[in-house]
C-alpha cells in the first residue's frame, strides 16, 4: 500500500482566508466613500473661501473709500427689517429659501456709492452652486462696519458653515 502525502489546504483554511480577504477589501472600500465625502467638503470649503474673498473685498473697497463723507457713512444702515443672521431665518427657525437675494440686496445697499457688482463670474461647479449669506452691521456713531459671510450648497447647512468675518474702519472725510 502506497501512502500519498498531499500538501494542500483544507476547505476550512480556504474559507478562513477568503473571509479575512473579504473583510480587508470591504474595509478599503469603505475608506473610499469616506475619502470622497471629505474631498467634496474640502472643495466646498475652498470655493466658499474664494466666494467670501470676492464679496468681502468689494465691500471693504466700497466702505473704506477715502472720498466718503462721515455724514453719509454714519447714517448708512445695514439690515433693514431683521438684525444680523436673523434676516435669513423664518419665524419658526428654518432657513429661508431666498438667501441669495437677501445677500445681494444687502451687498447692493452697502455698495451703492461705488457700484461694484455681485461676483458672478465663477468657473462651472466652483461657487455657482453655492448659496450665500451676507451680514453687514453698523452702529450710528461707530466708525467700524462688521461684515460676516457664509456660503453653502444648501440652505439647511448655511449656519453650520465657517464664518468669514472682517471689520472695516471709516477712512473718509470726518468733517462733512
Largest sheet: 3 strands, antiparallel
Strand content: 5-15%
Helix percent reads 25-40%
Number of E-state strands: 3
- Order of strands across the widest beta sheet? 1-2-3
The value of Rg in angstroms is 28 Å
How many structural units, i.e. domains?
Answer: 1
Overall average pLDDT: 80
Structural features, described:
The mean pLDDT is 80. The longest helix has 53 residues, at 11-63. It contains three helices and three strands; from the N terminus they run αααβββ. A hairpin with a 5-residue loop joins strand 1 (131-138) and strand 2. With 176 residues, the chain is an alpha+beta fold. The radius of gyration is 28 Å and the shape is rod-shaped.
Short description:
With 176 residues, this protein is an alpha+beta fold. The protein contains three helices and three strands; from the N terminus they run H-H-H-E-E-E.
Write the layout of secondary structure elements.
Layout: H1 11-63, H2 70-74, H3 99-110, E1 131-138, E2 144-152, E3 164-169
Antiparallel strand pairs: 1-2, 2-3
Task: Identify the notable features of this structure and list them briefly.
alpha+beta, 3-stranded antiparallel β-sheet, 3 strands, about 40% helix, about 15% strand
